[in-house]
Amino acid sequence: MKIKECEIKIRTLEAEKAGLNIDESQRYDEINKEIMELKKEAYSNLEPWDRVYLARHQDRPKASDYISLLIDDFYELHGDRCYGDDNALIGGIGTFKGIPVTVLAQAKGKTLEENLKRNFGMMNPEGYRKALRLAKEAEKFHRPIINIVDTAGAYPGKGAEERGQAEAIAKCLYEFSNLKTPVISVVISEGGSGGALALSVADRIVMLENAIYSVLSPEGFASILWKDESRAEEASKYMRLTSYDLYEKGIIDHIIKEPAGGAQNGLEYVVAQIAVYIETELKELIQKKDRLLIRERFLKYRKIGMI
């Protein structure tokens, strides 16, 4: 059973349970048993499309949730010093386990109003230029960079193209590959196309178990290949976009486990794993000389895609 279908059935059962009288304890227990069986069936063998659904789930934790739990004394910085600010990127400085860090996080909203403000996590050129400005500042003070990736892709609007969207992304790819400071990227939900890749040139890339990371969305894949967006579920099976696919191919370095049903069902559990991973890797990366850090980063990306 698909997770979406399971959740609909569970909501129906929960509504029935809420309407039961106090003397209907037998039915109450039956409903709880049915819900447990539904969850067991749905979460035991997830298909790629199930993980796409979980990655896009409306209750899934956003970048701001992870920042508040991982980073102490976070201070947000604004503007690209060229055109303006981009609310789709939260960028700033803080401390992680006592280590001064720079955080660059693609931000979606929790409500429709906030999503409109954040442009649904789709960054404009000024967002990528802001990210690069803060990354170069981090390099100057040798602060490690923690990237949080969550976007369906870079914003494809006319204004974004006119202001140099492609150039801004390309500049991020170029500059991040040569940054003389450690970079760790965490894909928390969607990692779509060049919009995600711009913040994914890193020494370590980690994904949440139910996150996705690909060159485009399943809908885009189906539209291009079959001229039929409705075949997105089928497309997801061919795209190898899940964390397990990408780990197997050596594209990512680690998978953060999630509770059944997604990170929203146990955010503290997920954050604890991320914290342990980042702390462990930073201890190693901070000790490396700049030339070695850049050399190993270069070799990491040279190996990606090798058969």
TrEMBL record:
Chief location of this protein within or outside the cell = cytoplasm
Pathway participation: Lipid metabolism; malonyl-CoA biosynthesis; malonyl-CoA from acetyl-CoA: step 1/1
> Which UniProt keywords are given for this protein, alphabetically ordered?
ATP-binding, Coiled coil, Cytoplasm, Fatty acid biosynthesis, Fatty acid metabolism, Ligase, Lipid biosynthesis, Lipid metabolism, Nucleotide-binding, Transferase
Which spans of this chain does the record mark as coiled coil? 3-41
**What is any one of the record's Gene Ontology cellular component terms?**
acetyl-CoA carboxylase complex
One GO BP on record is: fatty acid biosynthetic process
Q: Which GO terms describe its molecular function?
A: acetyl-CoA carboxylase activity; ATP binding; carboxyl- or carbamoyltransferase activity
Pfam family, any one? ACCA
NCBIfam families attached to this UniProt entry: accA (TIGR00513), AccA_sub (NF041504), PRK05724.1 (NF004344)
Q: What is the stated purpose of this protein?
A: Component of the acetyl coenzyme A carboxylase (ACC) complex. First, biotin carboxylase catalyzes the carboxylation of biotin on its carrier protein (BCCP) and then the CO(2) group is transferred by the carboxyltransferase to acetyl-CoA to form malonyl-CoA.
This protein's assembly is summarised as: Acetyl-CoA carboxylase is a heterohexamer composed of biotin carboxyl carrier protein (AccB), biotin carboxylase (AccC) and two subunits each of ACCase subunit alpha (AccA) and ACCase subunit beta (AccD).
Instruction: Write down what this protein is called.
Output: Acetyl-coenzyme A carboxylase carboxyl transferase subunit alpha
Q: Which organism is it from?
A: Anaerofustis stercorihominis DSM 17244
